[in-house]
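Cross-posted from the bioinformatics board.
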Amino acid sequence: MPFKKIGLSDELVQGILATGYTAPTEIQSEVIPHAIQGHDIIGCAQTGTGKTAAFVLPILNRLTDEKAKSKSKRKRFVQALILTPTRELAVQIEEAIAEYGRFLHLKALSIYGGVNIQRQIDKLRRGVDIVVATPGRLMDHMDRETINLSRLKVFVIDEADRMFDMGFVNDVKKIVSVLPEKRQTLLFSATMPEAVRKLTEGIQNKPIKIQIGKQHNPIETVTQHIYRMQREFKMDLLMHMLKEEQMYSTLIFSRTRYGADKISRRLSKAGIKSVAIHSNRTQAQRQQALDGFKQGKYQVMVATDIAARGIDVEGLSHVINYDVPTYAEDYVHRIGRTGRAMQTGDAITLVSSEEHKYLKKIEEFTGLKMKPKRYLGFDHRKIDKTKEDNSGHEEKESNHKTRSRSEKAKKRRKSNAETSNWSDERQSKKKRPTTRSNSEGGGKKRSNSQGGKKKANSQGNKRNDQGPGGKKKKRPHKKRRPNKKRRPLSDD
Ligand code: AMP
């Protein structure tokens, strides 16, 4: 069905066509007609399905219509409020409004933290029709009484489940409490946990529920790849993939901010244009990173989950989970950054032995069993060892050590041919200093990171005691390897 047939005005349809859309997506066809009629709506759809236009277009349609009928055409007051969890998403929605509404005479403003509030106050004073806001900064404006929401007609909560995850629930409730009761409320959420469902009960009036696709399913246009390996090989494989494959626009997810910076630095050093985005960076840096990535200035953007929702980069070819996300929902959101707008994309997840538990949770959540693969052209010895769960790194070290020991022993045998009656006991004593100095290196590294230390203690012990099938594993009795225990588990 063409856009015109779902009830949108001519000028708006022109704007949509100029944006390059020819027909509405499924969520748009379902939501827009009901929204135009003024119904409250709960929209459940995966990211990448065209959800933004599904709520922006009816808003633009309604406000233009009402403006045409109004006597004070020139006067602007906030008639629509869109709440979103992240600043990047707010900017993106503001841009979408400007694109779709290019032939309309409506003004939108995004208000979010991390930037000068005065400019926002000035713009609000001059008058806007639509505000796209993050909850914290909006509350700030409400406290200062620099925003007037008393004439609001449409209220949208976008990414409601994320809003809850980020702890915004009380802010949302406070905001809702000052809005006019007579309004249209549209709520969009990728998933519908109990907390979100409860919220909708209090703030909506007989909402129409629209569900597109199954809630937990990752978007179908994304091909998922799983590679199992020890953590220390992840960087090798990442570099290898980025150099060997045509990964022209790649988003890499790291669990921590520190990790994101580190990955980005390592890639930049290797000549791969890369930038990091996370909440420790200023808003200007975040926006610059995102803009640079969108414009193709950087081949890679390394992000924490701050970029897992809503971020829309046209033609993003690959999403790489350098770390497996702790929450299964985040996996679906992360990989949904690619394969958007009916294009295809690849999602690659690097899974270390410590992360198998998260992969299992993802499989349960999505109902998909993901088969680990071999990465063609990569040194498989590195990956194969990891199949034994805990032995990859240790074997590597032990190979290395065995070699150096036997080399040393050879030398020693040569030079001490006449005193070749050393006992095994004496040999091993003699070797210990080497081992100890290795372990001191590991220990030192670990003591820099408290998180790493904890993990290393709790998980490291488990790994040492259990074989792959959960059975007690026979310890190699002849040598103790202190450095095996002390190996730092995490880059972060
Ligand atoms: P969203 O789910 O709103 O983040 O949208 C995902 C992507 O789909 C964005 O790149 C939009 O520009 C694009 N998009 C939205 N609606 C349409 C449409 N009707 N036709 C083609 N692309 C669309």
